């Protein structure tokens, strides 16, 4: 029987008749017994550091009998550590890991520090994907890490990280464990905190491993991997969610999104890129909190939108952003165009086919297209409609998109490039590029034109 969490492109639990992006159903649906069946719960591991102030209510019924014995992956209920952690034995192949990152972890541990792989690299290994990189988390302070690695430098002002640099410029990022900032809301106040009170404006306090895990956004991104013991350390139920193939926040999703609204875009991106279902509470929280995305730093929001376009699953991600209404807040010009197109009997679905071609090219070339190409493709249909009948199409495109460019703090280089590219496309289609063929935008326009042609029905 197929459980609810395997529905793709939808909030988990929605009707099977709900609309999904065309073709999503034929994406991978691998047997979950492959990578995740390697996971077994270790009962011989020593306890991790205890946490002061742990729950006294039986630790939520032993954290629901340790996530139902890690979603029925074991026939006995494993022990729960004092701080809510579970160590899970995972015989991953060292050949699939970055050998330089392993060297970093082992040098730190040899000098008495706690150090693990953390985040996306661990998640991708467990899901059977190829990790893009391996980040390291440690209890060592940046100055201590710097002292151990001559080939390193400390970066960052708000929160310092260490980049350990290897051959050909490869960088292994090492971060000290952090904790969530202390809440400024009075615990004795019965009134619910406002979104402004929940918004995180500082996140630069050092902490311990369990605190670092619980400050993260999604359970699947909060797993640590102990290289020497070959165990995953799970403080938040991430292993259970890996098995269930579901994206879920750590704690109340509405609170987590109000703390950092960009997490809504990230949750959708991971669901799309990793082909996972979305927890119903998470989906509903995005719908309720979508208006707060305007409180995010505009350059950071633009970068997250670009990451969505670069991820190789932009069609599904943009579909979810449109379906939840998040796109209507970030880019109402585009969302309104999609609403109008979908409401017509002869709706083209042209944008979805262009994004499918973008994803195909991204996967085929194993690298994303240039940002200018991606943004132009995203806005091509509404921009092309806006410039019709105008003598100066570049100015008309700028005038139409100026509110969106301001909302995302779009660099002038990208804004001008999109406008000039859209203006030149009719000349390219007619085979008369003229002097435009000698400009640096010609290759961009040619790529956009090719994606546009590939999306024709």
Molecular structure report:
It is built from 19 helices and 13 strands. Strands 1-2-11-10-3-4-7-6-5 form a 9-stranded mixed sheet. It has helices at residues 58-72, 99-110, 120-126, 142-148, 195-198, 209-214, 238-244, 253-259, 262-273, 280-289, 298-310, 314-324, 326-330, 332-343, 350-365, 371-387, 393-407, 412-429, 442-454, and strands at 40-41, 86-89, 115-118, 135-138, 152-155, 161-165, 171-176, 178-179, 205-206, 224-226, 231-234, 246-247, 277-278. It folds into 2 domains: 33-185 and 197-244, 2-Layer Sandwich (Beta Polymerase, domain 2); 332-454, no CATH class. With 457 residues, it is α+β, with helices and mostly antiparallel strands. Helix content is 45%, strand content 10%. It is globular, with a radius of gyration of 24 Å. Helix 9 runs parallel beside helix 11, helix 16 (371-387) crosses helix 17 (393-407) and helix 17 packs antiparallel against helix 18.
């Amino acid at each position: 029987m197929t459980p609810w969490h395997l529905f793709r492109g939808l909030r988990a639990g929605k009707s099977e008749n709900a609309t999904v992006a065309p073709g999503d159903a034929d994406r991978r649906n691998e047997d979950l017994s492959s990578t995740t069946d390697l996971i077994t719960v270790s009962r011989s591991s020593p306890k991790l550091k205890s946490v002061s102030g742990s729950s006294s209510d039986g630790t939520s019924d032993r954290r629901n009998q340790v996530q139902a014995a890690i979603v029925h992956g074991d026939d006995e209920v494993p022990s729960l550590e004092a701080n809510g952690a579970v160590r899970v034995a995972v015989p991953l192949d060292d050949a699939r890991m970055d050998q330089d990152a392993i060297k970093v972890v082992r040098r730190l541990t040899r000098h008495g520090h706690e150090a693990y792989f953390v985040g996306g690299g661990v998640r991708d290994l467990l899901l059977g994907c190829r990790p893009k990189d391996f980040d390291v988390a440690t209890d060592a302070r940046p100055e201590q890490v710097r002292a151990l690695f001559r080939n390193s430098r400390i970066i960052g002002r708000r929160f310092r990280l260490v980049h350990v640099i290897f051959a050909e410029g490869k960088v292994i990022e090492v971060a000290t464990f952090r904790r969530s900032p202390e809440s400024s809301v009075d615990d004795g106040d019965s009134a619910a905190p406002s979104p402004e009170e929940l918004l995180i404006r500082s996140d630069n306090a050092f902490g311990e491993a369990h605190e670092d895990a619980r400050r993260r956004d999604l359970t699947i991104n909060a797993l640590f991997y102990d290289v020497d013991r070959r165990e995953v350390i799970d403080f938040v139920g991430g292993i259970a969610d890996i098995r269930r193939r579901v994206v879920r926040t750590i704690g109340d999703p509405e609170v987590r999104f109000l703390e950092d609204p960009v997490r809504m875009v990230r949750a959708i991106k991971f669901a799309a890129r990793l082909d996972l279902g979305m927890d119903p509470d998470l989906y509903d929280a995005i719908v309720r909190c979508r208006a707060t995305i305007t409180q995010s730093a505009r350059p950071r929001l633009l970068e997250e939108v670009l990451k969505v376009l670069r991820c190789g699953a932009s069609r599904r991600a943009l579909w979810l952003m449109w379906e939840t209404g998040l796109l209507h807040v970030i880019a109402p010009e585009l969302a309104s165009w999609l609403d109008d197109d979908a409401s017509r009997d002869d709706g083209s679905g042209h944008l979805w086919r262009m994004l499918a071609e973008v994803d195909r090219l991204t996967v085929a070339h194993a690298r994303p297209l240039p940002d200018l190409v991606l943004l132009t493709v995203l806005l091509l249909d509404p921009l092309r409609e806006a410039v019709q009948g105008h003598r100066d199409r570049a100015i008309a495109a700028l005038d139409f998109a100026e509110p969106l460019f301001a909302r995302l703090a779009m660099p002038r280089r990208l804004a001008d490039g999109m406008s000039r590219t859209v203006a030149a496309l009719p000349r390219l289609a007619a085979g008369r590029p003229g002097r435009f063929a000698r400009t640096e935008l010609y290759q961009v326009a040619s790529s956009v034109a090719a994606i546009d042609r590939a999306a024709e029905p």
